[in-house]
Amino acid sequence: MARSKYRFRKIDVRIWGDSKFRNLSSIPPCGQGLWFYLLANRHTTSIPGAYSIGEATIAEELNWPLKAFREAFREVLQEGIVKADFKAKLIFLPNAIKYNIPESPNVIIHWESHWNELPECELKCEIYEILKSFIGDLSPSYIKAFNKAIRKPSLKAMSNQEQEQEQEQEQRSTSCTSSTEPSQNENSVQANDPCVLEIPCVGKGKKMFELRRSQYDFFLSAYPGIDLNHELSALQAWNVANPTRRKTHAGMLRHINAWLSKAQNNLKTNGGNYGAQERSARRKSYSQQTREAIAELEQRLARADDEKRVSQSALVPSIERDAEK
Q: Is the four-CA dihedral 61, 80, 259, 152 of positive or negative sign?
């Protein structure tokens, strides 16, 4: 194999447990510090960039509060250099294979045990396709070793298992509710945090997921590079068109986050944010259903803002009367 054009330095992953290293001042919560940890920690495997770990474990090993870890992880995620499914506890660094090209087909054969230990989820399917595409550019002996050692995950089986788990979780949560009627306090919360989008879902609980304005604002700040209205409307249209593949009410937020994360990563791959002309040209090619959904979402957002202002203005006289008393 040709000599690599990259320059490397070896780091023993046991450094994180070394007594002298631990006596040094800790790495403060930051994106760069987290990135170096993700590159070389004791949980990494023989498969470049793919290993099983949860967010609580990472935060604990770095001595970071969980909130600080999540803020640092958001930085890394937005750069498109890491993918994660923390529900399944799976991490993947997509570019790791480029810098850790297997030296022989036997190296790939030894991936098998670690591959079988990775949790089954949609991200594992994505890892499979990325690795397969890269190995496909190598010699036939590498391809043969990959096909022998790495079994393609069954997305259908995983989807059914995930849906059953989400339905059980939703059933447990609904059984703990003493009444199906919303309380006065809940009505007040809904008035101040109105629904901006409805997405059909499955399961024994609610059949429609209501995306609240606060949730919309959170996704807007978490994924600044994408056209959020378009992506949410496209997600809504996908769920309408694919009733057998819908998520449960309990799993809908995770579904939305995965959709938006993929859209953000696609932007990084294709060269940055949408320009005004690119967005306009792309919108012209959308189906009529998607265009109408975008218009409806924008109207809902406008109405939600109006309702919130009316609700807040109605509180002022009440507060003044209470003060006079």
A: negative
| Torsion angle of the four alpha carbons 205, 210, 211, 215, in this order, in degrees rounded to the nearest 10 | -60
What ranges make up the beta strands (E) of the chain? 50-52, 83-85, 90-92, 195-200, 208-212
Q: Which residue has the tokens 């109605």?
A: 314
Longest dimension (CA), the chain: 85
Q: Report the predicted TM-score, pTM, of the whole model to 2 decimal places.
A: 0.51
Alpha carbons within 13 A on the beta-carbon side of 105: 13
Q: Among 137, 301, 110, which Cα is nearest to 212's? A: 301
Judge residue 255's burial from the number of C-beta atoms within 10 Å of its C-beta, 0-12 exposed, 13-18 middle, 19 or more buried. buried
Strand partners, 198: 210
- Residue 276 identity: A
**CB burial string 74-85: b at 16+ within 10 A, e below:** eebbbebbbbbb
The span from the CA of 127 to the CA of 131, in Å, is: 6
CB 199 within 8 A of CB 159: no
Q: What DSSP element (H or E) covers 133?
A: helix 122-135
Yes or no: say if 45 and 51 are a contact pair by the CB < 8 Å rule.
Answer: yes
User: What's the CA gap between 124 and 39, in Å, rounded?
Assistant: 18
CATH number listed for the domain at residues 13-153:
1.10.10.10
Where are the chain's structural domains? 13-153, 186-324
Taking each continuous run of H as one helix and of E as one strand, the counts in the chain are: 16, 5
Encoded amino acid at 316, one letter:
V
**How does pLDDT run across 175-233, given as a tens digit for each residue?**
544 444 455 554 554 557 888 889 999 887 788 999 988 889 888 888 888 888 899 99
Nearest to 92 by CA among 29, 49, 121: 49
DSSP states of 188-205 as a string?
HHHHHS-EEEEEE-BSSS
